[in-house]
Design a protein that fits this description.
The structure holds two protein chains of two kinds. By secondary structure, chain A is of the alpha+beta class. In chain A, 56% of the residues lie in helices and 9% in strands. Chain A folds into two domains: 182 residues, Butyryl-Coa Dehydrogenase, subunit A, domain 1 (Orthogonal Bundle); 148 residues, Butyryl-CoA Dehydrogenase, subunit A, domain 3 (Up-down Bundle), CATH 1.20.140. A four-stranded mixed β-sheet of chain A has the order 1-3-4-6. The chains are: A alpha+beta, B alpha+beta. The interface between A and B is large, with 56 and 48 residues.
Chain lengths: 344, 388
């Protein structure tokens, strides 16, 4: 057992950590609202190799492991990075798993920073592809249609709903003919390909939420260690300290589980999908609860927009729920353990 | 990074499973439950023959030199099987303290017998007025020549009725801060003045109140310095760092899976196909995984000589609270049949779910309540100020 990142992984963490410290400050996160997109941060992430690392050499990348990506995602979550890092990485990995010129071309353009692909975790319903993550800033969205995967260019007909997490979401009108005429990425196995991509997405989001929870606990602790009421630091009250202790404990568990799930992608393929759903479910609950506690200990100040903790509270909900609820993810764990249609 | 326990841990795990196959049975599990005594002479003898009384000790001291990761595998398997290890656990915990801070005579007298399974040593820490605040103990030890005279009362001395010695926390100085006036003794239990009164608990475990009335103990049975008892306690409790209840959650999950696979609802649909059941199973599996990771992290830190600060308390706190929450969930998901008791012939999966509900209650209380562990995490881990 070795729970320490390797020297190379530590370099990666340090490099991205330094970039986020400079280009994703709380001030920049606020400036990027309500759209939730900071183009300068995004350009620098792409320049640092955030997308080329996501795919292997054969696809023009440098083949980082999912664990490497997860460690970067923790930094992303810690800094609330206003950039579609996870969506684009997951889309690139999906493109790399499909054959054909269309996928290759889109992938190359993405790595070069010329196009920005995303994917939809949902199928179109009532003529709308709802709440496409990164859909407000992406150039293309990968969608499942029956058992095919198609790619749709994103145009001016999309609408951008204001949302709790200030995420660049889009509702995209998609009628039957548009889907039928769309460029096909994969003729079959669309469900499997999307599911595999969703597993990657769950793991990386788990990492981001774990990093976010860890940082939120720190913000809450720092405040509770400074603020005085009834003649003592409020962090000395067990009613405050114990809730933070619970949040810190869950946050440690969420980080370990997200890393284990990412590690299993290469090292324990039999448990990969189960661990991905576990990591997401637990990290989503952890970030939800940790940001709630950390905001609450601020008292009235936590309710003011001026304090940074509200930025964390809103994103903990947005980043998780745009994919699925913790309960849905727990049922996905069962699907992976026992099979989706359980048979004796 | 590598989340596997080392390859030798897999070997140890297989060895323990093979051992349990031969020496553990449903009948023995029921005996432990019905008597409330987690100790069995035949099982202990088999463990001694296998050389597994102190597997983590160096070979030259009678152990097998297993590293902390191997010990995780051994511990997980023994606890999953609910093997009768409690008496052995307390005996070897005290033997470990004696090895660390005892005199040569004490080591020569106690350690070979402990390793041979010939003695049972029990713990006398808690008192009626000193539970979580264990350093508030008032059981008095007063010197009289080269002996000490002990008077007082201890709570929760499990296995005292079969014990040979009690590792006793006493007050020897009332003039100093409470932590600085404590002294530890190894007191023989078979002597006048020791009165043992049975106490039965919700999990089925039998424990005891033990009264000490003018009990005499030779100074040669003092463990550590006079008024230096807190140090000996710290040595004992340090060995408890890797505490966690992942294996109990594993038992709960296994029983719930068995129930879900073998039971149908009123319409004949397998319970395993019910979304509520699947969600409860999924959540239990998640909490098991997190509990394992937190517990294994402590073992890895110990193996790599990293200072363990809040990580031990996090493991104990999370796994015990998760066990309680998931056991409660599962009882509600299973429905009325969950009320059928452990080892009642009509109970699903031997009634393990019902037992885990009752068992879980103790886990958030003994070895430091959840509140004590939250204090440790808040103060040592997060650096929050102490409560006044």
């Amino acid at each position: 057992m070795d729970l320490r990142p390797s020297a190379e992984q530590q370099q990666l963490i340090d490099a991205f950590g330094a970039l986020y410290a400079k280009e994703s400050t709380a001030e920049r996160v606020r400036e990027a609202e309500p759209l939730g997109f900071d183009r300068r941060l995004w350009t620098q992430l792409v320049d640092l190799g955030a997308l080329s690392m996501a795919v292997d050499e054969a696809n023009g990348g440098w083949g980082a492991s999912l664990l490497d990506l997860e460690l970067v995602a923790e930094e992303h979550g810690r800094a609330l990075g206003p950039a579609p890092l996870l969506e684009a990485q997951v889309a690139c990995r999906l493109l790399a798993r499909t054959d054909g010129a269309v996928a290759a071309e889109l992938l190359a353009a993405a790595i070069a920073g010329e196009r920005l692909p995303t994917l939809s975790p949902r199928m179109p319903a009532s003529g709308v592809l709802a709440l496409v993550p990164a859909g407000a800033v992406a150039t293309d969205v990968i969608v499942r249609h029956d058992d095919r995967l198609v790619v749709l260019p994103l145009g001016d007909d999309r609408t951008l709903p204001e949302n709790v997490g200030s995420q660049p979401l889009a509702d995209v009108p998609v009628d039957g003919s548009r889907l039928a005429e769309a460029t096909v990425l994969a003729d079959q196995a669309g469900a499997e390909l999307l599911d595999r991509a969703l597993d990657d997405w769950l793991v990386l989001t788990a990492g981001a939420l774990a990093g976010m929870a860890e940082r939120a606990v720190r913000i809450g602790v720092d405040y509770a260690a400074e603020r005085e009421a009834f003649d003592q630091k409020i962090g000395a009250f067990q009613a405050v300290g114990h809730r933070l202790a619970d949040a810190a404990t869950a946050s440690a568990g969420a980080t370990l589980l997200a890393r284990e799930a990412a590690w299993a992608d290469g090292e324990e393929p039999g448990r990969r999908a189960e661990l991905a759903a576990m990591a997401f479910s637990f990290a989503a609950e952890t970030a939800r609860d940790a940001t709630d506690v950390a905001l609450h200990v601020h008292g009235g100040y936590g309710f003011m927009l001026e304090y940074d903790i509200q930025l964390y509270y809103r994103r903990a909900r947005g980043w998780a729920n745009v994919l699925m609820s913790p309960s849905t993810a727990a049922r996905r764990v069962a699907d992976r353990r026992y099979g989706p249609k359980w048979a004796n | 990074m590598d989340f596997r326990l080392g390859p030798s841990s897999d070997v140890r795990r297989a060895e323990v499973r093979e051992f349990l196959e031969a020496h553990m049975s449903l009948a023995l599990e029921e005996q432990v439950y019905r008597t409330g005594v987690s100790h069995d002479e035949d099982f202990t003898r088999a463990l001694v023959e296998r050389g597994w009384m102190a597997p983590s000790w160096p070979v030259e001291f009678g152990g097998q030199g297993l590293d902390p990761e191997e010990m995780v595998a051994v511990g997980e398997e023994l606890r999953l099987a609910d093997a009768p290890m409690y008496g052995i656990g307390t005996t070897m915990m005290v033997a470990t303290v004696i090895r660390a801070v005892g005199t040569e005579d004490q080591k020569a007298e106690i350690i070979p017998k402990a390793l041979a399974g010939e003695i049972v040593i029990v713990l006398g820490f808690s008192e009626p007025e000193a539970g979580s605040d264990v350093a508030a103990a008032v059981t008095r030890a007063v010197p009289d020549g080269d002996e000490w005279v002990i008077n007082g009362q201890k709570m929760f001395t499990t296995n005292a009725q079969i014990g040979d010695y009690v590792f006793l926390l006493t007050r020897t100085n009332t003039e100093v801060a409470k932590h600085k006036g404590l002294t530890m003794f190894l007191v023989p239990l078979h002597q006048p003045g020791v009165e043992i009164q049975a106490v039965f608990t919700l999990s089925g475990e039998r424990t005891n109140i033990v009264f000490y009335n003018d009990v005499r103990v030779a100074d040669s049975w003092r463990i550590g310095e006079v008024d230096g008892g807190w140090h000996a306690m710290t040595v004992a409790l340090t060995n408890e760092h890797a505490a966690g209840f992942a294996a109990a959650i594993d038992r709960l999950l296994g029983a719930a899976e068995t129930w879900a696979r073998t039971t149908t609802d009123d319409d004949g649909v397998p319970r395993m196909e019910d979304a509520t059941v699947r969600e409860a199973l999924g959540r239990t599996a998640i909490d098991l995984e997190v509990s394992r990771l937190l517990q294994r992290r402590v073992a890895w830190m110990a193996a790599t000589d990293q200072p363990i600060v809040a990580e031990g308390p996090m493991s104990k706190l999370f796994s015990s609270e998760a066990l309680s929450a998931r056991a409660q969930d599962m009882v509600e998901v299973v429905g009325p049949d969950a009320l059928r008791s452990y080892f009642d012939p009509t109970a699903p999966a031997h009634g393990v779910i019902e037992h885990m509900l009752r068992f879980s209650l103790g886990t958030t209380i003994y070895a430091g309540t959840s509140e004590i562990h939250r204090n440790m995490i808040a103060q040592r881990g997060l650096g929050l100020p102490r409560n006044r």
